[in-house]
Design a protein that fits this description.
Elements lengths: L6 E4 L4 E4 L5 H7 L3 H6 L7 H13 L3 E7 L10 E2 L9 E11 L1 H4 L16 E11 L9 H28 L6 E11 L3 H9 L3 E3 L7 E7 L2 H7 L6 E6 L1
Parallel strand pairs: 4-10, 6-7
Antiparallel strand pairs: 1-2, 1-10, 2-3, 3-5, 5-6, 7-9, 8-9
Helix pairs in contact: 1-3, 5-7
Length: 241
């Protein structure tokens, strides 16, 4: 998405910055790890393909992406500087938010409302959250949880603009598009990620699929998303290239 191209999210536990071309070499190095490929259901790419992928993610209307970095120092009160505050040695992983039509809409061809509280003909979306902390020595330190909390706080603050960008890209009426829930697809044997999302309020839906993934879901509630950033000292700072 383009909405976050000049915005970074600074908290006491993590810094999120837009995924830009100067991150690609480090990201490509991470993705050579077969364990990460399996955990993220990714195929290995050439470096050229990785650069193309980065550009695609930057301009996609249905995917919001940040690079996860070490938090700024408490004394840092100015803008975030690219290639300095997010230098390779400060990068820890990435976090993504994908928008899809909600499964209920696939079965609702006549467009009628599903519940009395929903507007007739509403286009219901579900957002998938996907977080990856690349190196084993950086896992278990709270980066993943803080990244999820931070991006959900950002989405709550900018939801109308995010939905507007999605609707424009899909050629939909932006007045009818609404976010109704969240999901995360996690390998069944990834106990750490399952525990992380469970702690945040996600519940497993059904059994593992053919690919060995479980789906964890939660409803989109404004109050819950507000609580996500409590204690994180959340700030949005301009990202300067």
């Amino acid at each position: 998405m383009k909405i976050n191209e000049k915005t970074s999210i600074s908290t006491s536990k993590v810094l999120l910055v837009p995924y830009e071309a100067h991150h690609v070499l480090t990201y490509h190095d991470w993705m050579q790890d077969p364990a990460i490929q399996e955990a993220t259901a990714s195929e290995p790419m050439t470096l050229e393909e990785e650069y193309e992928n980065q550009l695609s993610w930057r301009t996609s209307h249905d995917k919001l992406t940040f690079i996860v970095c070490e938090p700024l120092s408490r004394e840092h009160h100015h803008n975030v500087t690219a290639q300095s505050d997010d230098a390779p040695d400060k990068m820890r992983g990435d976090i993504n938010f994908f928008l899809y039509l909600d499964d209920d809409d696939d079965d609702d061809d006549d467009g009628e409302e599903v519940t009395g509280s929903r507007e007739s003909n509403a286009i219901r979306l579900r957002g998938e959250v996907d977080v990856m902390i690349a190196r084993t020595q950086h896992r278990g330190k709270g980066f993943g949880e803080a990244a999820v909390r931070s991006i959900l706080g950002y989405i709550r603050r900018h939801l109308s603009d995010i939905l507007r960008e999605y609707a424009k890209g899909e050629g939909l009426d932006e007045q009818k598009v609404q976010l109704v829930g969240l999901m995360a697809k996690i390998k069944e044997d990834n106990a750490g990620s399952r525990a992380l999302f469970g702690k945040l309020g996600f519940k497993q839906e059904g059994e593992a699929n053919y690919f060995g993934e479980v789906k964890m879901v939660m409803d989109w509630e404004e109050d819950t998303m507000t609580e996500m950033v409590e204690g994180l000292e959340y700030r949005e700072l301009q990202y300067v290239m």
